[in-house]
Amino acid sequence: MSADFESYEQDFAVLTAEITGRIGKVPKLVGDEKKQMVANVEKQLEEARELLEQMELEVREIPPQSRGMYSSRMRSYKQEMGKLEADFKRSRIAYSDEVRNELLGDDGNSSENQRAHLLDNTERLERSSRRLEAGYQIAVETEQIGQEMLENLSHDREKIQRARERLREADANLGKSSRILTGMLRR
């Protein structure tokens, strides 16, 4: 059974490599070549999905003790398939936008899109202005608080300096008193 699975794996690897190459070519092509390439990629993606289904059936028939390894491989193949489909979808969207623009004769910038874009930009600008205004208010408040703190610190410094002067005077007076008392004791 694992031989069938490995055969499907090889086919899947070859097919996904071809799909990847073709998806890369889609944006570079024009006209009928592009339409043909898109149709080919769609067919190959369908083949790849069928291969994945076959591999899943094979994994279900594998004994449970060795099924874990194959299950993890299947998960990675499914992820790869999802990535391929997303890449193809992106290339098709670019392709369909291009076809629409060719048919309508415009460059994709309709007045409605421009209006919506301008409204979005205006909203963003207003939000930014409000944030700047709020930031400015905070800065002004912070500056006022800082000035008040500096004034308080200045007053505290003056008080400390006055207290220090009083202590020096008291120390000098204590020194004088001590000398006077010492002199009195000697007499």
UniProtKB/TrEMBL annotation:
T-SNARE coiled-coil homology domain sequence ranges: 117-184
Keywords: Coiled coil, Golgi apparatus, Membrane, Protein transport, Transmembrane, Transmembrane helix, Transport
Chief site of localization: membrane
Biased composition (Basic and acidic residues): 114-126
Cellular localisation: Endomembrane system; Golgi apparatus membrane
Bilayer topology annotation: Single-pass type IV membrane protein; Single-pass membrane protein
CDD domains xref list: SNARE_Vti1a
Gene3D superfamilies in the cross-refs: 1.20.5.110, t-snare proteins
One BP term from GO: intracellular protein transport
Stretch list, region Disordered: 103-126
Recorded GO MF terms: SNAP receptor activity; SNARE binding
GO annotation, cellular component aspect: cytosol; endoplasmic reticulum membrane; ER to Golgi transport vesicle membrane; Golgi membrane; late endosome membrane; SNARE complex
Coiled coil regions, renumbered to chain: 31-61
InterPro entries xrefs: SNARE (IPR010989), T_SNARE_dom (IPR000727), v-SNARE_N_sf (IPR038407), Vesicle_trsprt_v-SNARE_N (IPR007705)
Family statement drawn from the similarity comment of this UniProt entry: Belongs to the VTI1 family.
Record's subunit section: Interacts with distinct SNARE complexes that contain either STX5 or STX6. Interacts with NAPA and, to a lesser extent, with NAPG. Identified in a complex containing STX6, STX12, VAMP4 and VTI1A.
PANTHER family: VESICLE TRANSPORT THROUGH INTERACTION WITH T-SNARES HOMOLOG 1A, VESICLE TRANSPORT V-SNARE PROTEIN VTI1-RELATED
Protein name in UniProt: Vesicle transport through interaction with t-SNAREs homolog 1A
Lineage: Eukaryota, Metazoa, Chordata, Craniata, Vertebrata
Name of the gene this protein is made from: Vti1a
